[in-house]
TrEMBL record, chain A:
Gene3D superfamilies: Metal-dependent hydrolases. It comes from the Bacteria. This is Polymerase/histidinol phosphatase N-terminal domain-containing protein. Pfam families: PHP, PHP_C. Residues 16-84 form the Polymerase/histidinol phosphatase N-terminal domain. SUPFAM superfamilies: PHP domain-like (SSF89550). InterPro entries: PHP_dom, PHP_domain, Pol/His_phosphatase_N, Pol/histidinol_Pase-like. GO terms for molecular function: 5'-3' DNA exonuclease activity; 5'-3' RNA exonuclease activity.
TrEMBL record, chain B:
SUPFAM superfamilies: HprK N-terminal domain-like. It comes from Thermophagus xiamenensis. Residues 6-106 form the DRTGG domain. It comes from the Bacteria. Homohexamer. The lineage of its organism: Bacteria, Pseudomonadati, Bacteroidota, Bacteroidia, Marinilabiliales. This is DRTGG domain-containing protein.
Length: 258, 111
């Protein structure tokens, strides 16, 4: 790990990629297994990973366990597709909350059978890449819950809620709902990969909520292509919440490209 | 034709924005992507959508549409309804699907 502790405030700068798909997402490469993701993150000096498959958390635990052994913090969650068809990230670092959230997902995911030939396979695997389960329901459909209802549930369970790639041309806050309301219920805003810094400045999104980046990686080589620097005391989700609110020096520093 | 006449002829529910029922209607627009509505709807249009989020009324106000129709029996979110009353832009509803209500509106406006 290449981060350094600031002697004055005792805080550390962590490199985070908070939007990563796995082999469970139909559009995710089957190469995105837990062991490959952790190896890729280790090589790229990533300290914190957010595992966010479409509408499912079922691959998270294996990666959290492997990450723990490798000294990489893994926050589990999902990339929710809301009723408005806006993609939003939910992040948790507690397995109990993750389980409860999975039950909520199972309740509100409409039953549409996956056609792997069209959409891709939806499997979750163990650390040796043995298949643990197959999801039969198509994961990319919209949940029967609005953005606001999703925000409420994520918060009820102690998680963090972040609209994903807000300026993408499809399935984004801006494509579906036109603009970012100043009173939006969200903890942060994730900008699309490859968004120019001038655009972020010009749109003044950071005046509404902290702006973060994520790679939205579907293939191993994409992992780490969107990095957020977080200045925190440790790599827990609780510290991330403090950073989002600027509590005692903790902060979301900047978005960088690597 | 006014919004009020359309409400009568298509048997629409009025969720809110009653003070705007006298507004003249000059056309219609159908889209569920608010980014698209922002770019392409015209003032005086009746906008048909399934989105119920508060941003609907902000876009309706920005584009100065005559009214919004929510389809399939969908109810507006509370803050959407509140905004409709504040902006005096009628927020209407129908159990019809978009295809059917758009066809009927087209027939009315063609005359």
């Amino acid at each position: 790990m290449n981060y350094s502790k600031n002697k004055e405030d005792g805080l550390t700068i962590f490199r985070a990629d908070l939007h990563v798909h796995t082999c469970l997402s139909p559009c995710g490469s089957l190469d995105m297994s837990p062991v490959r993701i952790i190896e890729e993150a280790r090589q790229k000096h990533i300290d914190i990973l957010g595992i966010t498959d479409h509408n499912s958390t079922r691959q998270c635990k294996e990666i959290m366990d492997l990450g723990h052994k490798a000294g990489i913090a893994v926050w589990g969650g999902a990339e929710i597709n809301t009723r408005e068809e806006v993609h939003c990230l939910a992040l948790f670092d507690d397995l109990k909350a993750l389980d409860a959230f999975q039950q909520w997902l199972d309740r509100w995911l409409p039953v549409v059978k996956n056609k792997p030939d069209y959409f891709g396979h939806q499997v979750w695997v163990d650390e040796k890449e043995n298949i643990l389960g197959v999801e039969d329901r198509l994961l990319i459909v919209a949940l029967d819950r609005s953005m606001e209802q999703t925000y409420e549930e994520v918060h009820r369970l102690g998680g963090v809620f972040i609209p994903a790639h807000i300026n993408r041309k499809s399935n984004s806050l801006i494509s579906q709902l036109g603009f970012v309301a100043t009173d939006i219920k969200a903890d942060a805003l994730e900008i699309s990969p490859e968004t120019k810094k001038e655009v972020i400045k010009q749109m003044r999104w950071a005046e509404i909520k902290p702006v973060i980046a994520g790679s939205d990686a579907h293939y191993p080589e994409q992992l780490g292509t969107g990095i957020t620097l977080l200045k925190m005391n440790n790599s827990s989700l609780n510290e991330f919440k403090k950073a989002l609110n600027g509590v005692r020096g903790r902060t979301v520093l900047a978005i960088i490209d690597i | 034709m006014t919004v009020s006449e359309i409400v009568d002829k298509l048997n629409l529910a009025v969720w809110g924005g009653e003070d705007g029922l006298h507004r003249p209607v000059t056309g219609g627009y159908v889209s569920d992507l608010l980014s698209d509505v922002m770019g392409n709807a015209s003032d005086g249009d009746v906008w048909i959508t399934l989105q119920t989020h508060k941003n609907v009324m902000a876009v309706a106000s920005l584009k100065e549409v005559a009214a919004v129709i929510l389809v399939k029996g969908l109810a507006p979110d509370d803050d959407t309804l509140e905004q409709s009353n504040k902006e005096n832009i009628p927020l209407l509803g129908t159990k019809m699907e978009t295809f059917e209500v758009a066809g009927k509106l087209y027939e009315l406006l063609k005359k």
